[in-house]
Amino acid sequence: MPSPKRLHIGVDVGGTNTDGIILDPNRANDHGITEAITTMMTSAGVAAIDVASVTIGTTHFANAVVERDARRLSPVAVLRLCGPFSKHPPPCIDWPDDMREIVLQHYALLLDGLEVDGSPIGDIDEASIRAECALIAAKGIKSLVICGVFSLIDTVQHQEERTAEIVRAAMPAGCDIVLSKEVANLGFVERENAAILNGAILSFARKTIRSFHEPVRNLGLNCPVFITMRGVAFLVGNSDLDEAIMVVDIGGTTSDVGLLQANSFPRQQAAYNDLAGVRMNFFCPDIKSIGLGGGFIVRCNTSPIHITMIIGPDNVGYKLTKEAVVFSSDVVTITDCIVLSGAATDIGDASLVQEKLTATELAECQLIIRQKLEKIIDTMKTSLADLLVLLWASVANAIGAAIARVSAVIDTVKSTEGTSATELLKDICADAVARTVAAGASEETVKIVEMETLPLQYISNKSRFIVRAAGDFNYSRASLDESPSSLMH
Predict the structure, then answer these.
(1) Cys bridge to 401: 10, 195, 269, 313, which one at CB 3.0-4.6 A?
(2) Among 445, 398, 469, 472, which Cα is nearest to 54's?
(3) CA–CA separation, 225 vs 304, rounded Å?
(4) What is the dihedral of CA 291, 297, 302, 306, to 10 degrees?
(5) Which residues 6+ apart lie within 8 Å of 189 measured at CB?
């Protein structure tokens, strides 16, 4: 009988560097790390049959938005089901101008949608939808967003779903259709924003996830691939302090700040979240990101009066080791500044950058970096009390990915007219547990970790239920053929 799979591979894919580790959950945490992902399979002498899972944490999708990269953001068409309402604010009205120009290429206001009590504003007009689809297809747009007013409480008309069926029949094959009710929560503008942004990165996300699966297959690993949001959350469990910890992840493209609660779960967004100036309201950890990373290009404008240092927004990205000054090239980056300051002595050749920046220019650059980090850290604090901040933790994100648990979240609106909220919550919890087990968790380890009931205002007998379940990975079920669709936390 073959021995059970027990090893885990964790990968942190950033804009500049990729960190990888092999972790044996049966050994102490400080003995399982070997080499980076590119050589760890051979250097560790690990057989592919022993690997139970590959878990990847990445900022690729956020980076595409932060960088306003038109190569990775697809043009989107929006069909808004609103009737005579919301005509004046068009889609993406609160977006940064450069983002809106890249993403929003077509929109139409259709005579559908719901009133606040769930009654229909108007019937679906199939002819109008088909006419809009013809215009969208003529523009070559392959990503469509359908967003209906109060669609989250639409348990009878199913207008977004019915519109999607018409669109699917009218559009050429291969088009992506995003329903806003499947992406975000109540709050029309924010839900529409989230759906549009989802539609914009969907094609890139699909290619990226496919690129994650291919090396797993090429290495002969017959195991599922997970995407995680856990990162350095495991560090909270290693702390003797029963308190939250703020983590600053300074990567090659962005600096991300999050708050880990004492139970090692990331703090969730209270109501709305902001990504690169786009306001949304879907379920996600409370993380703030700014364009600041090791690959950012540093420029100096010197005048007789003062020195002005300009950092970014362009960066060398994964070409850092070929274009940065410390690696014998000629592009001054933040990494060069860090090396010159003496904060990183094991990166490149510090002597190469000494002639590129004076002491005054270096000090100015350090001041700008510190001010940017201090500002975003302060925005994440909810009290005046001191808070432990982790600024450096090596390959902690990769370790956190490897030991991440499996989770599932249900965020739904239910009618409490015929069934009590307690009974509905019980059924939703059971569904969350079942989804977590289906995603690859061991049933006996699954627990409800978050549970919330929010009665909806202005609507009688309807409540919003949010339930999250999490459990340990079930090693006995690990195979590529059973690769789950849910995400690890």
Answers:
(1) 10
(2) 398
(3) 56
(4) 30
(5) 89, 93, 94, 279
Give the single-character DSSP code of 269.
Answer: P
Strands (E), 111-232: 143-148, 176-179, 225-227
Place of tokens 């994650």: 212
Amino acid at 416: T
Say which amino acid occupies 24. D
Angle between helices 359-380 and 334-341 (to 10 degrees): 110
- How far, in Å, CA of 144 to CA of 167, rounded? 9
Question: CB burial class (10 A; 0-12, 13-18, 19+) of residue 195?
Answer: buried
Tokens of 458: 């202005």
- Cα angle 323, 72, 38 (rounded to 5 degrees) comes to 55
Helix 159-170 vs helix 126-138: angle between axes, to the nearest 10 degrees?
A: 50
Distance, in Å, from the CA atom of 424 to the CA atom of 155, rounded to the nearest integer, reads 15
C-beta of residue 103 within 8 angstroms of C-beta of residue 76? yes
**Contact partners, residue 207, CB within 8 Å, separation at least 6:** none
DSSP state of 56: E
Residue bearing tokens 């690696």: 327
> How far apart (Å, rounded) are the C-alpha atoms in residues 234 and 238?
7
Q: Give residue 105's pLDDT band: very low, low, confident or very high (50, 70, 90).
A: very high
The CB-side HSE value for 371 (13 A sphere, CA atoms) comes to: 7
**On the CB side of 169, how many CA atoms lie within 13 Å of its CA?**
10
Contact 480, 222 (CB under 8 A): yes
Residue that has been written with the tokens 């940065």 in this structure: 324
- 23 within 8 A of 32, measured Cβ to Cβ: yes
Number of Cβ within a 10 Å radius of residue 210 = 9
Locate tokens 């878990």: which residue? Answer: 55
Give CA–CA dist 403/405, Å, rounded.
7
Output b/e per residue, 300-338; b: 16+ Cβ within 10 A: beeeeeeeebebbeebbbeebbebbbbbebebbbbbbbb
CB 239 within 8 A of CB 245: yes
Report whether 439 contacts 476 (CB < 8 A).
Answer: no
121-177 pLDDT, tens digit each: 888 899 999 999 999 999 999 999 999 998 887 878 889 999 999 999 999 998 999
Is the pLDDT at 427 greater than 90? The verdict is: yes
Q: Distance between CA atoms of 436 and 265, rounded to whole angstroms?
A: 16
Query: Among residues 138, 99, 54, which one has the least CA distance to residue 483?
Result: 54
Quote the pTM value: 0.63
Residue 475: DSSP 8-state: G
Tokens representing 226 are 């997970």
Task: Please tell me the distance from the alpha carbon of residue 75 to that of residue 97, in angstroms, as a whole number.
Answer: 14
Residue in the block written with tokens 């490149």: 348
The tokens describing 38, both together, are: 């590119």
